[in-house]
Design a protein that fits this description.
This protein is mainly alpha-helical. The chain has 7 helices and 2 strands; from the N terminus they run ααββααααα. It has helices at residues 4-22, 25-29, 38-62, 71-84, 87-106, 110-119, 127-141, and strands at 31-33, 36-37. The mean pLDDT is 97.
């Protein structure tokens, strides 16, 4: 089964790693608006990468099942918690979560991947979400 997303995810994770390596503590505290800092955006990326990994693991173990979510409600509910995470910890978590999500979706069985493609529920291509935030951060710190 075609898995173009594996290379795309890997490239996005490397771009995230390169960005992370050059972020100063001041950069991590810079505001993106609406209570979001660069560090918050990184933890947000990590949250959704971890969600993907946990869901894929559960589906591999227990079989596919629906898992609807409202991204705006999640973001609004999680923002106060995300703001509490130390900025350097946010960087580390974003990188670790990206690595985990990449590995998890790269190793999906063909059957589970086909089900996900048919029914949805998670994005195996993690790059799109990461790159949206990476580009936003890069524009801010440039």
């Amino acid at each position: 089964m075609e898995r173009d997303y594996v290379a795309t995810n890997r490239a996005a994770t490397e771009r995230l790693r390169m960005l992370a390596s050059r972020l100063s503590d001041d950069d991590l505290r810079r505001t993106l608006g609406n209570g979001w800092s660069v560090a918050v955006a990184l933890v947000h990326i990590a949250f959704f990468d971890r969600r993907t990994a946990r869901l894929a693991e559960r589906w591999r173990r227990d079989g596919y099942g629906p898992s609807p979510y409202d991204a705006d409600a999640i973001n609004d509910a999680m923002l106060p918690a995300w703001q509490l995470i130390p900025p350097r910890a946010a960087v580390n978590e974003a990188l670790a979560a990206a690595d985990e999500a990449d590995a998890t979706v790269a190793n999906l069985s063909d059957d589970l991947l086909a089900t996900i493609r048919k029914k949805g529920g998670l994005r195996t291509n993690r790059a799109e979400h990461r790159l949206n935030h990476i580009e936003e951060i890069e524009a801010l710190i440039s």
